[in-house]
């Protein structure tokens, strides 16, 4: 038996080492902060070390500066190929990110541990996305550092809070040329159910600032005639949704979802919706999650905090508004529509000064599932999950890098997979990953790489 013949067997044998390394990896507090790069630098060093230990030649793995070395996290970039790989073998690009979101006050975030009878590993980043890094490392180890097709391994350090890599990719296209691209930053719609994510919403974000006074004034002495800036801002924010809860901006793209439809009861439980609270919006639940716009406020400033109230009128108030857009909506079009809507005179009858500034934007993604790589991926995942059938689903989140990779590789198959599933509680606490899912997805990637070599004709 060779590692090329039975990669899944090897992946299962390596499970304990994968879990041990994942726990070690979680201890690195790799939250990206341009003012303190040490945590992400430590994580990048760890990734580079593990790649070489897995068989990548030391001179074939490096840390690339994607912008300002004093502000940007390094990109860990590696290439690897077996000496006996066929000359016409397709190239696979394997992507994941090593940065994580902040602990949010979770005291045990950086203290990894087994939970649920050792079936899950708990800790910040256990699922999103250090499990994706481990999935790629596990596949490399399963092949003994000699993968059947050439690999490009790309591990990012700014996915959660930066956007520099997308521009770097567009300026350095040759580094990211590939025939099949595996983005390990999504997961299965349900634990143990193999899933390919084929749709991502895009996103635009703006800062809306409303001003009514030169400075805050006493609410008893002056309250009444002068408008409070925060109250004026609230009127604008409330208008973004109509009574049924649909985004009220009229000319945005709205798509109907035809793939795997999530169940409402399970969704309510996973999202933590309170028992008597209604879900909002029109069309199917899948359409509302994957194909239609949604809007919410993700940051707010203006009046004094609740913990330290002051009797005064607010002079200036600001809100960061995040608008999720349909997969095929152009971000620049959505941004223009959002700004036009916010500045409608009927939303500002008090004639407050309203400013709108772009904060972020990213395109959505819609996969072409007719490409041969999808058939191979489906077969690979069903081999890793015996007796299960692969389903296609969407994701309401945005990964703008995916669109950039597809645009510079127009004929490539882009696959969105990973070890996440609803019980992981990503971006929340307590975050965890299922050990069986990590092993199975590592198996699936092994099978995919083997199939890419076997079916290249």
Automatic annotation (TrEMBL):
InterPro entries: Cyt/Met_Dipeptidase, Peptidase_M20, Peptidase_M20_dimer. Gene3D superfamilies: 3.30.70.360, Zn peptidases. Signal peptide: none annotated. The keyword ATP-binding does not apply. The keyword Lipoprotein does not apply. Residues 199-344 form the Peptidase M20 dimerisation domain. Transmembrane segments: none annotated. It comes from the Bacteria. Keywords: Hydrolase, Metal-binding, Protease. This is M20/M25/M40 family metallo-hydrolase. It comes from Streptomyces ramulosus.
